[in-house]
Amino acid sequence: MTLNNQTYKTAAKIYTLFYALVYLKGLKKMCGIIIWINKKGEINPNILNEAISLQRHRGPDRTRSLFYNDQFEEVHPDPGNNKKNHKNIKFGIAHNRLSIIDLSNRSDQPMASQDNNKLIAFNGEIYNYVELREELKNKDGIEFRSDGDAEVLLNWISINGTENLEKLNGMWAFAYINKVTNEIVFSRDRYGKKPLLYFSDDENFIASSDYKSIFHILNRKRKVNEKYLLAFLMNKKWVNFSTGETFYKDIFSVLPGGELKFDLNSHTFRTFRKNAINKYIGNNCNKDMIVEDLRSSINLRLRSDVPIGILLSGGVDSSLISAFVAENNKTNIKFYTLADHESDLIYAREIARSLNIPLEEVSLDLNDQNYERITSALIKNFEIPINFGIVAIPLYIICEQMKRDGVKVLIDGTGGDEVFGGYPGYLRGLELNLLKAKKFKSALRFFHQANLNQKLRGINLLKRYILFLLRMFNPNLFVDEITREYRGKLFNKYSNFNYASEIEQVFEVCDISRLLSPKEMQVNSLDQMLANYLVITDRASMAHSIESRSPLLDYRLAKYMNLSQSDTFNKGYNKYTLRSVMPKTISANIRWRKTKGGFSLTNKIKEYTQSSEMIQNEILNSKILNHFFELKPLLDEIDKTKTNRHVSTLRDNMFSVAQLEKHFEFDY
Predict the structure, then answer these.
(1) What is the pLDDT at residue 2?
(2) What is the pLDDT of residues 498-546, one digit of tens each?
(3) In whole angstroms, how far apart are CA 292 and each of 248, 296, 367, 373, 433?
């Protein structure tokens, strides 16, 4: 398709006017990308523009769409014509930009190389772009037109290929178009901090930062993947399958550290995973270097041309980060904490006083109106069921306040528990490892010290001792497995279909009894629990057009998962080395904290959901849940045993599923 000069100018003016009108109307906007390939070469530019506008909350600062035919010529859309498809368009690519570094339009995307043979659309941040830029200038003679990281990434890949991403320190989901090889390479960062979804059938291939854009292009209702639904309801917290399956049938996720290569000639693609974080765990670690690595990781993530907000819960991870951040004496940084978690608030205030930093305390007023408003907004942005009590609601509320304060970058302590061994389950894993080796005295000594540190008293301490004695005879006895089995029986009893095979697959994915050591549990948590938290963090922050950064997920820190057992778990404490290297500005009271709540309202929300008539009615009226289960008798049984810990959060999970139907159409 060739455009003469007059036609081109007229189309450009119309497009500019159309974009200005959309922008000035203040439609929701975040960084988000869409690539649409129609295998017949028929694409409607307006539909792609509508699809990218649905995720404008991911990039409120600028939106750009490009459409290419066989000659890779740009085609501007025709506003007002939603039915006409352009013939022979190879693909369309759209990008919403959240400006963090180089706020000028020189860093807008999609961005083309200087020879126009390469193109990139990029969601994320390359923190070491300054160092990579210097290497490209000095070694390869590259001259840059912008001061941002997108152009650095484009040139780095152009010279080194997508097979050489090891030097990139950051988070990303990008599409890299190569005119010479006639292929598109999609890549996701090592931990999978940024989402990258895709759909493929005989007519279309679509990749996107969210689901709603895919369904808008396809113009079809959503179908639930029953295996994912069961896994969510049974496992309480996280659902991640090695196949890349998602909550929706026929929509997949590029795996963390994975790539998808699409051949524009044959319209075929292949996926592979060769840059996952596990690759970096094997690197030799020297604990004497940990402070230098931590400081470098944090300082890189302070690179920003916009205000930054730090989450401070008062725990080890956020306190350590806040202490290093305070050393920089930057003026565009604010600190935030959750006022509703009193046990943590005491420590957060103590940290703020010792570091001489202002602390914004954000409160959550939990009532029917506020709870429904927040959960509805979360579901609209997440598009999948989530556990509201674990981080999601507190983080959403804090980011809401950050946005009012003009903050565009969030720094949190995500990853500290996984990398440095912070979860209580790791301590239990060590205990079980000793029991399996029949080292009963060592197991009892460690068990006793850990209980002292956790300040367990009375009936809770008695329960732990009883469980310890039972595990002496059966070390594989895990509470989480009992929960899955208990819920699995409930669903089989009250299901409208036979889910035996799906339930077995869920057990296989989530089984942790096969893990023999805390180290194996740590590695497993990267693909399971951490992946869940990263989804929550990305969606909750980007709902307010805020970019979340996690210094403890710097790939250079992954090697510290290889610290010796005594360096990780010692004297009944987890994260022993991390606690030991905390700056002296952190008091021993915080350094050796025995309990930690974190940004979680699980118990508070559980109490609320069990007593709320509104939630009960939402669940009963859910077409999705009624399609899969005999809902009334299932809820009656849950009510009878609501004090049972194995079903205590099930109502919250079911409400999350029911909320989806308020915003999206489903094919049952």
Answers:
(1) 38
(2) 766 666 666 555 555 555 577 777 887 887 788 888 999 999 999 999 9
(3) 43, 6, 46, 43, 32
Fold agreement between 5-231+248-276 and 287-419+531-600? no
Instruction: Give the β-pairing of 89-97 and 111-112.
Output: unpaired
At residue 296, the 3 state secondary structure works out as: helix
Q: Identify the pLDDT of residue 371.
A: 79
Pairing of strands 42-43, 86-87: antiparallel
Which pair of structure tokens corresponds to residue 510?
Answer: 């989530």
The CA distance from 69 to 49, in Å, is 17
Domain definitions of the chain by residue range: 5-231+248-276, 287-419+531-600, 423-515
pLDDT band at residue 604 under the 50/70/90 scheme: low
Distance CA 364, CA 411 (A): 21
> CA of 563: how far to CAs of 319, 434, 538, in Å?
21, 18, 29
The region of weakest confidence among 322-331, 371-380, 412-421, 644-653 is 644-653
The residue with tokens 């979340």 is: 548
Q: Of 276 and 640, which is predicted with more confidence?
A: 276
- Cα distance between residue 372 and residue 610, in whole Å: 15
Q: What is the mean pLDDT of residues 284-291?
A: 89
CA–CA gap between residue 20 and residue 14 (Å, rounded): 10
Decide: 306 and 244 in contact? Cβ < 8 Å: no
pLDDT tens per residue across span 353-369: 999 999 999 987 766 67
Which strand (E) or helix (H) includes residue 259? strand 258-263
Q: Which is higher by pLDDT, 280 or 427?
A: 280
612 compared with 360, residue with greater pLDDT: 360
Per-residue pLDDT band for 387 (boundaries 50, 70, 90) equals confident
The fourth-level CATH superfamily of domain 5-231+248-276 is Aminohydrolase, N-terminal nucleophile (Ntn) domain (3.60.20.10)
Whole-model pTM: value is 0.87
**CA-CA distance, 20 to 332, in Å (whole number)?**
30
Q: Six-digit token pair at 497?
A: 């279909």
* 315 close to 289: Cβ distance less than 8 angstroms: no
Alpha-carbon Rg of the chain, whole angstroms?
A: 25
Q: Which long-range contacts (CB under 8 A, 24 or more apart) does 434-441 make?
A: 435/471, 435/472, 435/475, 436/475, 436/516, 440/472
How many residues appear in the chain? 668
- What is the CA 212 to chain-centroid distance, rounded? 17
Binned at pLDDT 50, 70 and 90, residue 159 comes out as very high
For 277, the token pair is 């974080």
Architecture field, domain 287-419+531-600: 3-Layer(aba) Sandwich (3.40)
Q: What share of the chain is helix, strand, coil (3-state, %, to 5)?
A: 45, 15, 35
Average pLDDT (79-83) is 55
φ, ψ at 289 (rounded to 5°): -95, 0
pLDDT band at 78 (very low <50, low <70, confident <90, very high): low
User: 110 preceded by cis ω (within 30°)?
Assistant: yes
- DSSP-assigned states of every residue in 331-370: SSEEEEEETT-HHHHHHHHHHHHHHT--EEEE----SHHH
Asked whether the beta carbons of 537 and 548 are under 8 A apart, the reply is: yes
Q: State the Cα–Cα distance between residues 260 and 275, nearest whole angstrom.
A: 12
Contact 489, 647 (CB under 8 A): no
The dihedral built from the CA positions of residue 439, 445, 446 and 447, taken in this order, carries a sign that is: positive
Do residues 511 and 234 make contact, with C-beta atoms less than 8 angstroms apart? Answer: no
